[in-house]
UniProtKB/TrEMBL annotation:
Organism field: Mucilaginibacter rubeus
Residues of the Carboxymuconolactone decarboxylase-like domain: 50-117
UniProt cross-references to NCBIfam families, sorted A to Z: ahpD_dom
PANTHER family with a match to the protein in the record: CMD DOMAIN-CONTAINING PROTEIN, SI:CH211-175M2.5
Record-given protein name: Carboxymuconolactone decarboxylase family protein
InterPro entries per record: AhpD-like (IPR029032), AhpD_core (IPR004675), CMD-like (IPR003779)
Length: 179
């Protein structure tokens, strides 16, 4: 497989350079996966627009979706990145490991969210009907379900880009899950 080089600021378009500058201000660096998006003249801006779009999900809920989708899709990069981000959003290490394992016994609503997001991902959108009903019973709405589907799609994009590029993971290492 051809190796993907991680482009530097000087190797990308002026539009992507501006995004690199913003990422450096916000994150302190340009994460490798975002840099490789800039191999395309448009993919990085398109992805950031999607990822930063409005949603009915709270930041913590979105991170729960990001964690389980990345786990199901076997994405080491996104699992590591979203473990760090989930900690910033109030999850502890044990909760993160549990979410990556497909449940959240510490919060019934998050548990229903994680289970439906896992089912959506594993079944290519054809979620288990009982898990959808449990999602609604936990207090979520149809609008929330659509936003979960968008969040699954968002995270699947980065999971696939990592699978195709295998860029080095530049986030803190995380524990492997016992299967």
């Amino acid at each position: 497989m051809k190796t993907f080089a991680i482009p530097t600021r000087e190797q990308v378009t002026p539009e992507n350079q501006a995004i690199f500058d913003t990422l450096t201000k916000v994150v302190g660096r340009v994460p490798n996966l975002f840099a490789v998006f800039a191999t395309s003249d448009h993919a990085l801006a398109n992805y950031i627009t999607l990822s930063n779009g409005k949603t009915s999900l709270r930041a913590k809920e979105k991170e729960a979706v990001n964690l389980i989708v990345s786990q199901v899709n076997d994405c080491a990069y996104c699992s590591a990145a979203h473990t760090a981000i989930a900690k910033m959003n109030g999850f502890n290490d044990d909760q993160i490991v549990e979410i990556r394992g497909g449940s959240a016994s510490f919060d019934a609503k998050i548990d229903a969210l994680v289970k439906v997001a896992k089912s959506i991902t594993e079944n290519k959108g054809h979620a288990d009907h009982q898990l959808v009903e449990n999602f609604y019973a936990a207090g979520y709405t149809q609008a929330n379900l659509i936003d979960v589907a968008v969040a699954v799609g968002d995270k699947t994009i980065t999971n696939y880009v990592y699978a195709l590029t295998q860029v080095p993971v530049d986030w803190p290492a995380i524990p492997e899950l016992v299967k």
